[in-house]
Design brief:
heterodimer; A: 124 residues; alpha/beta; Rossmann fold; five-stranded parallel sheet; 5 helices; 5 strands; B: 326 residues; alpha+beta; Helix Hairpins; Heat Shock Protein 90; 2 domains; five-stranded mixed sheet; two-stranded antiparallel ribbon; 59% helix
């Protein structure tokens, strides 16, 4: 079975690029444009890794993370905050809330992102 | 009368003179020393009073200065906090378009692009171009904001010019025509037939404010045409109406659109720094969030004011009021 990732991200231009790249590299790619959709999809699709943006309308990624970690069905899925916000407070709060890492989008190349995903994805 | 008599008299006179002299000398010294004592007492008292006053005064002075320093310290802390919030937000807004451009370039560089269908390839390259334009706009918004923030912005009559508003609008409308055309939005500049009275100000800044307003109207009015961004499409034809007129002592410049509008509970926050309406943010995730703040700062710096009316889903009208040259 293909490794499966879920992106919770509101920027469609970015989703389109990550989707293309992850699919080219042999991943199953799912995405949701907001927290509410994302938590439903996490339960439904059971991804091996979740990339979670922070600045989104309606619900901020840090709040979504707390919900994912409270839910029995999703708390075991490794979740990484994947954002362009690089302030210390968000990073600390994210790690404290159970994110496995905090990646700044512009600081990582697509190639390194794929490598990172392969290393950190939970295999079922 | 013998010698004894004259001798006696001489002695008596001498003694009298001696006593007299003694009295004078003593009196002189007495007076002198008493004067000194009085004087000494007096200046000691004066010095004490002065010292006391100084002490009291010093305490008040120190207290006032401490308060002053505490206030300055608080202001500095506030400023530093504002500055770091500004940098966090500004860097997020800058990174977003950079990230897209960078990823597209990396895919071209790695040869991934060649593995994609031609229409997707074309869309990505177009996207990278669009993001570079957005990036340019965000950079200039951030620079203008920091300019406006550092020198509390006001028009100083020495460097200000007499400005004919219609001429400025002409140029901006000509620059925006292309973008509006691409989105199939009618840009209707209702240029007044008679010349408007002059306003005094800086052309560079006022043009920036006017062009921000017109750009916003075009940006947040969905297109009827086919665009790569499906979020930005609807069937109702879009229009933007631009007007300028003199009313009393003011020039009123307005930009009306039939775009997405503003949620009523968010209208009050529209001119705040980094604020973006939720529906605007859903339409475009990137944007500096500084456009309207800049407009307000520039217009108020010119002694004017800004206004907005809007209905969600129906459109918005933004107005700039500028004092007419006296």
């Amino acid at each position: 079975m293909k490794p499966r990732v879920l992106f919770i991200e509101d920027d469609r231009d970015q989703i389109s690029l990550y989707k293309t790249k992850f699919e080219l590299e042999g991943f199953d790619f799912f995405y949701a444009c907001n927290g509410a959709e994302g938590t439903v999809m996490a339960k439904d699709k059971k991804p091996g890794l979740i990339f979670l943006d922070i600045i989104m309308p309606d619900e901020n990624g840090l709040e979504v993370l707390k919900k994912l970690k409270k839910d029995e069905d999703t708390k075991g899925i490794p979740t990484v905050l994947f954002t362009n916000l690089s302030d210390k407070a968000s990073r600390e709060e994210g790690i404290k809330s159970g994110a496995i890492d905090y990646l700044v989008k512009t600081d990582i190349t697509l190639k390194d992102l794929i490598r990172w995903a392969r290393e950190n994805i939970k295999r079922s | 009368m013998g010698i004894a008599y004259w001798l006696d008299r001489g002695i008596a006179t001498s003694v009298t003179i001696a006593v007299f002299v003694l009295v004078i000398v003593y009196g002189y010294f007495f007076a002198q020393s008493t004067g000194k004592i009085i004087e000494a007492n007096f200046s000691e008292k004066q010095a004490k009073e002065a010292l006391q006053e100084l002490a009291d005064h010093l305490e008040i002075k120190v207290k006032a200065q401490t308060r002053n320093l505490e206030e300055k310290n608080k202001n500095l802390e506030k400023l530093i906090k504002m500055r770091s919030e500004f940098l966090d937000l500004a860097s997020h807004q800058l990174r977003t378009p950079v990230g897209v451009i960078k990823n597209i370039m990396e895919m071209m560089d790695d040869g991934d692009m060649g593995r994609l269908p031609p229409n997707v390839r074309k869309e990505y390259i177009h996207n990278a171009f669009e993001k570079s334009l957005k990036l340019k706009k965000i950079i200039s918004d951030i620079l203008v904001t920091s300019e406006l923030d550092t020198a509390s912005f006001t028009v100083n009559n020495k460097n200000a010019q007499d400005l004919q508003l219609e001429d400025m609008v002409d140029k901006i409308v000509a620059d925006t025509k292309f973008e509006a055309g691409q989105k199939k939005i009618t840009l209707d500049w209702q240029r007044p037939e008679k010349p408007l009275p002059l306003v005094v100000g800086y052309e560079h800044y006022l043009s920036y404010a006017i062009s921000n307003l017109i750009d916003n109207a075009v940006k947040y009015t969905p297109s009827t045409g086919e665009t790569s961004e499906t979020r930005d499409r609807r069937d109702k034809p879009g229009w933007v109406k631009i007007r300028a007129e003199a009313k009393g002592r003011e020039l009123v410049f307005s930009v009306e659109d039939n775009g997405i509008g503003i949620p009523s509970d968010e209208i009050g926050n529209m001119f705040k720094k980094f604020n973006r309406a939720t529906n605007a943010r859903k339409m475009y995730t990137d944007g500096s969030g500084l456009g309207l703040y800049i407009i307000k700062e520039i217009v108020e710096g010119h002694g004017g004011r800004v206004g907005v009316e809007s209905r969600l889903g129906e459109g918005s009208t933004f107005k700039i009021f500028l004092p007419i040259k006296k």
